[in-house]
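The following record pairs a protein chain with its ligand, pyridoxal-5'-phosphate.
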Amino acid sequence: MHAPRHENESRPEVIYLDNNATTRVAPEVFEAMVPFLTEYYGNPSSAYRFGKLVEGHLKEAREKVAALLGCTPKEIIFTSCGTESDNMAIWSALQTSGKRHVVTTQVEHSAIMNQTDQLERMGFGVTRLPVQADGTLLLSDVENAIRDDTGVVSIMWANNETGVLFPIEEIASLCKKKGVLFHTDAVQTPGKIDLSHVAKSDIDFLSLSGHKLHAPKGVGVLYAKRRTKIVPYVIGGGQERGKRGGTENVASIIGLGRAAELSLERLSDEQGRVRVLRDRFEETLLQRLPDLYINGKRDQRLPNTSNIAFDFVEAEAILLDLDLLGICCSSGSACTTGSLDPSHVLVAMGLTPARARGCVRFSFGHYNTEADVDYALKVIPPIIEKRRAMSPLSPEHRDNFAYDVEAAREKEEKLMAQTMAAINE
Ligand code: PLP
């Protein structure tokens, strides 16, 4: 949806089923932030009372975020986003350990994927662990990948595309036993799974992002376990006890504190009501349409995420049709949308490129209602049926017997590549 260009241009009506991409700022969060954008604009590092007052509110926000993880406020470092938290944890762990090998997985977010690519170009070693067909990870693979020169293991808690959960606390204990620092990208977890025992676990670093839990974009958190050595990634002033330079994004941090409070309060809602919405959505589609698969281990996923393979249809076509009807959802992660390549997560799970290109992620959230799901269930089946009837690859196409499916697919891919090359020229 484009941003309003004119004063009188109203927001398009949307059914927002893309809560893993970002979330609406909660009204309570916005309300908490406003005074820090208007009245209380002092710099928290200033010595006078007008600054000290803001510092006091930052302290409260830090306490609220700490409560989400069951840790102390000193273990919370505010950053500019989830990406910065991820980059900082890995960089700091490599610097303080002096080691040159990273263990991660093939299904991480691009924040980790691209940083580890960069580290490889700089001469560091990187092991990217495979996943099973249901998106799960074998603990024995993690154990076998750790070497004497491993400086950090970084494995996401919940996958942003499929919602599949990894056994993070067990992996953290394994790393501790082996004397290796452990980081988890937990950006997709708050308000969806219980994080209140993080400080009791062996996790050394954990990343969060404000805009995934109804706080604004552009604020993040790095949890760093007590006594874990840190080198700053953003180098500047002495903010965040010398661990992250740069004047604090005060209003957003205050918002994040309020959002952390709300997400604790709403955890049971997300785990109950939102799960019911998601499950009804999936069950109804499975009953209504053939050639449809749910990606990821059904009982080891976030309660809000549904990644569905619609065989014989291009996801981009589905997204286009749904967009016209006001439904927001996505194929792959928002950060890689627009790329012609099928999702690296789905390919790592062994989906053929053809099936991976027909996958759509729906992610539900606190503000979704039964009516949203009813509307999506009303419009999706006819869209899929219409698209399948047009696709020569579909068994439902009337001329299907006359087509060589492989040849048609090759031709389609060539055409698509030519179109993209022309666009990129
Ligand atoms: N990690 C995961 C798993 C994510 O889903 C995202 C956002 O999509 C990020 C990291 C990056 O967070 P941010 O957008 O705050 O940089």
